[in-house]
Design a protein that fits this description.
Largest sheet: 10 strands, antiparallel
Order of helices and strands: HHHHHHHHEEEEEEEHHEEEHEEEEHE
Mean pLDDT: 86
Length: 386
């Protein structure tokens, strides 16, 4: 929005707002150029209206960008819809043959349409902040204590768990869920972030506490400071495992689990997914979300709900593996900015009878409990950058 050249500004906005959708549609011929040209002709009006909106939505001293649907986004969407209306003509002009016009138009519209499916699934999975967590993390139930008491920084939880990564003895027992309707389910993994914002009066940097725990298989030494969580795509909540891992079945999954290594839970990565939101604003996701390893889902023969409306996998007995999200404890930065949740968290829980099957397949003596607590000061980036 700061470029003086209207063409460069329009190209930048299209990359920022529409790149993923155009890529998902395999860069339909002529659409990107058409959108850019439509926005070039409105550059002055877009700049003026967007500046007016920003001035109304934040205080003069604030540097934060308003989390709102602004004019430049509206105009980009309008330009895309107008350009897409002539998509069939553009394809024909490029020499493409279209046998079934209705099927083509439906597929074309679907590929270019906006999607908030991941955000909707996460919001439908939101629960009040649960107390279920490893007992060594119990002190973290008091959220952001350093906000009112400077002596609470560094956080006691981080100090207690310094140089600790794997647990043994009674501490290594699986965590059981306390909240209904999932009482006695097993928590495969948990991740929570507590954040306070930087302020000028009193002068304080931003602060962050990140805690995590997960069941894992690790026969080699684990680096100190690492998290007991992997990274994976979120598609298992929407798609059956045999589409994500072609050729796998329960028997082959059982063989994989015999030599399995790593955490049983993974942080969901939405990069490259259709409907991936902007990282810091807009109709988007909770910052944290967990997914199970696909091999575990295959071994237990689980499938998404029909239709999928939350983070939940089922079997013939009903809900079998559930992902929960929570957020709360609103704070502000001392200015006129909107309140922001200080706590975001997520966990992954499985039905007790299914955990017993999983325990037998993995080998009870191989399963370990991993735990980590890290604290940062003066860092505002999201978890993947921290």
């Amino acid at each position: 929005m700061t470029r003086n050249n209207p063409l460069e500004q329009a190209e930048d906005l299209v990359r920022l707002l529409l790149n993923g959708r155009l890529a998902h549609a395999n860069e339909p011929p002529g659409v990107r150029d058409s959108v850019v040209q439509k926005m070039v002709g409105q550059a002055e009006t877009i700049n003026e209206r967007t500046r007016e909106q920003i001035d109304q939505l934040r205080s003069p001293s604030s540097r934060s960008f308003p989390d709102a649907y602004l004019n430049y986004e509206e105009e980009a969407e309008n330009a895309l819809q107008q350009a897409a209306a002539g998509g069939k003509v553009m394809y024909l002009r490029e020499g493409f043959l279209i046998d079934d016009t209705r099927k083509f138009e439906a597929a074309f519209a679907f590929a270019l349409s906006p999607s908030a499916r991941w955000a909707s699934l996460q919001e439908s999975s939101r629960v009040p902040r649960p107390t279920t967590r490893h007992h060594l993390l119990a002190r973290s139930l008091t959220a952001i204590p350093w906000q009112d008491n400077e002596d609470e920084w560094p956080p006691p939880t981080a100090i207690d768990l310094d140089r600790m990564r794997n647990l043994s003895g009674q501490d290594a027992e699986p965590v059981r869920v306390a909240e209904k309707p999932f009482s006695s389910w097993v928590q495969l993994g948990m991740l929570e972030r507590q954040v306070t914002l930087a302020s000028s009066y009193p002068k304080q940097p931003s602060r962050q506490l990140l805690i995590s725990s997960s069941l894992e298989i690790a026969e080699e030494p684990i680096p100190m400071g690492s998290m007991p969580l992997g990274t994976s795509r979120p598609n298992i909540w929407l798609t059956t495992y045999d589409h994500l891992l072609p050729g796998i079945d329960q028997a082959s999954a059982a063989e994989i689990l015999e030599d399995f290594q790593g955490p049983l839970s993974a942080m969901a990565s939405y990069r490259g997914q259709r409907g991936e939101p902007h990282r810091h604003r807009g109709v988007g996701l909770h910052p944290l979300s967990l997914v199970p390893r696909f091999e575990i889902v295959a071994f237990l023969n689980l499938r998404p709900e029909s239709p999928p409306v939350r983070h939940c996998l089922v079997d013939d007995q009903g809900p079998a593996l559930v992902g929960r999200n929570w957020r709360g404890f609103l704070i502000h930065d001392g200015s006129y900015s909107p309140l922001t949740p200080a706590v975001h968290g997520t966990d992954l829980i499985v039905r007790p009878d299914l955990y017993e099957r999983l325990e037998k397949a993995l080998g009870k003596n191989r399963i370990q409990s991993g735990i980590a607590a890290r604290h940062f000061e003066g860092e505002d980036d999201d978890i993947e950058d921290s």
